[in-house]
TrEMBL record:
Family matches, as Gene3D superfamilies: Homeodomain-like (1.10.10.60), Regulatory factor, effector binding domain (3.20.80.10)
Protein name as it appears in the record: HTH-type transcriptional activator RhaR
Coiled coil (residue ranges): none
Organism expressing this protein natively: Neobacillus rhizosphaerae
SUPFAM superfamilies: Homeodomain-like, Probable bacterial effector-binding domain
Domain HTH araC/xylS-type: 11-109
The entry's keywords: DNA-binding, Transcription, Transcription regulation
InterPro entries with a match to the protein in the record: AraC_E-bd, Cass2, Homeodomain-like_sf, HTH_AraC, HTH_AraC-typ_CS, MarA-like, Reg_factor_effector_dom_sf, Tscrpt_reg_AraC-type_HTH
C-alpha cells in the first residue's frame, strides 16, 4: 500500500463510522473499510488517537446529541433513543459523564458542553526525531511463558495487560523468564496474538522469553512464525517511551515506508534493568510484508 493509500484507508474507515453513527456497527465492519483485521485496526486507531474505537463512537454520538438538544425542540427521550440509549437514565448518565451537565441543562443552555469533532487522520512523513531500526529475517522460533486471554471489547485488554505485568513481577515469573532466556532475543517479551479470525472478540497476551527447550512446569510454549521483522529501538522509561515509539511507528514510519503489517503476532522486548530509568532499553518487533 502506498503512503497515500495507507492514510486514505484509515480515513475511509472513519468516514464509514460517521455515515453509520446512528446504527449498530461492529469493529469488523469498520476494519473492513481499511482492508485490515479488526484487531489491527483497533490497535492502530488507539495508538494514533489515544482512545478506543468504541470511545470515539460514544463521544461523537453524544456530541451530536448535545447539538440537537441545544438547537431543536425534539424530546429528550427521542434524542436518547436516536443515539442508542434505551432509557433516559442511561442517556443522562453518559451525557453527564461527557459534558458535565444533564440533557435538561443542555436544553436550557445552562452550561458549557464538550464537542468532539469528526476525526481526520494526519501523518508526518518526516519525523522530527529519528527512528533507529533494522530489518531482520528469522525462521520460526519458540518462546516459553505465561498467557492470559483478554476481551478486546471497549479496550478491556488495554486495561488488563498492565495488571498482568504487575502480577508476573510480584510472583517471580519475570525473574524466572530472564533466567530461561537463551535465544537471539535478549529479554522478556510481550506478545499479542489476535484470535478474532476465529470469530471471537478475544486475544491472547503472552509474557515469555525465547527458549529452545521444553517449557518448565507451569509455563507454556508458543511458536512465533517465520517472518521479516522491523526491529525498532526504544530508549527511555516505561511506559511512556514505548507508547511514544508505537505512535511514531504508525504515524511516521509506516506511511513513509513500503511495508505493511503482516498481521502475525508482534512483540515488545524488555531488557533487564530499571524500567523507570531514562536510559532503559527496549525494542518493538513488528512482522512486515
Amino acid at each position: 500500500m502506498s503512503d497515500i493509500g495507507w492514510v486514505e484507508s484509515l480515513q475511509k474507515a472513519i468516514e464509514y463510522i460517521e455515515e453509520h453513527l446512528l446504527e449498530q456497527i461492529s469493529i469488523e465492519s469498520i476494519a473492513k473499510q481499511a482492508n485490515v483485521s479488526a484487531f489491527h485496526f483497533q490497535r492502530t486507531f488507539s495508538i494514533l488517537t489515544d482512545i478506543t474505537v468504541g470511545e470515539y463512537i460514544r463521544r461523537r454520538r453524544l456530541s451530536l446529541a448535545a447539538q440537537e438538544l441545544y438547537n431543536t425542540s425534539s424530546k429528550i427521550i427521542d434524542i436518547a433513543l436516536k443515539y442508542g440509549y434505551d432509557t433516559p437514565e442511561a442517556f443522562t448518565k453518559a451525557f453527564r459523564r461527557q459534558h458535565g451537565l444533564t440533557p435538561s441543562q443542555a436544553r436550557n443552555h445552562s452550561g458549557k458542553m464538550k464537542s468532539y469533532n469528526r476525526l481526520v487522520i494526519q501523518v508526518s512523513l518526516k519525523g522530527a526525531d529519528p527512528m533507529n531500526y533494522k530489518i531482520v529475517e528469522r525462521e520460526s522460533f519458540q518462546v516459553v511463558g505465561v498467557k492470559r486471554e483478554f476481551s478486546c471489547v471497549n479496550g478491556e485488554n488495554l486495561i488488563a495487560i498492565p495488571k498482568m505485568w504487575n502480577d508476573v513481577h510480584v510472583d517471580g515469573t519475570n525473574d524466572l523468564l530472564f533466567k530461561l532466556n537463551n535465544g537471539q532475543i535478549k529479554g522478556v517479551v510481550g506478545v499479542c496474538v489476535d484470535k478474532r479470525d476465529q470469530g471471537s472478540q478475544l486475544m491472547d497476551y503472552w509474557i515469555a522469553a525465547e527458549n529452545d527447550g521444553d517449557a518448565p512446569d507451569g509455563l507454556l510454549q508458543l511458536e512465533i512464525p517465520a517472518s521479516k521483522w522491523g526491529v525498532f529501538e526504544v530508549h527511555g522509561p516505561m511506559p511512556d517511551a514505548i507508547q511514544q515509539a508505537w505512535k511514531q511507528i504508525f504515524s511516521e514510519w509506516f506511511p513513509s515506508s513500503h511495508y505493511q503489517h503482516a498481521g502475525t503476532p508482534e512483540m515488545e522486548v524488555y531488557s533487564d534493568g530499571d524500567p523507570s530509568s531514562p536510559d532503559y532499553y527496549s525494542e518493538i518487533w513488528i512482522p512486515l510484508m
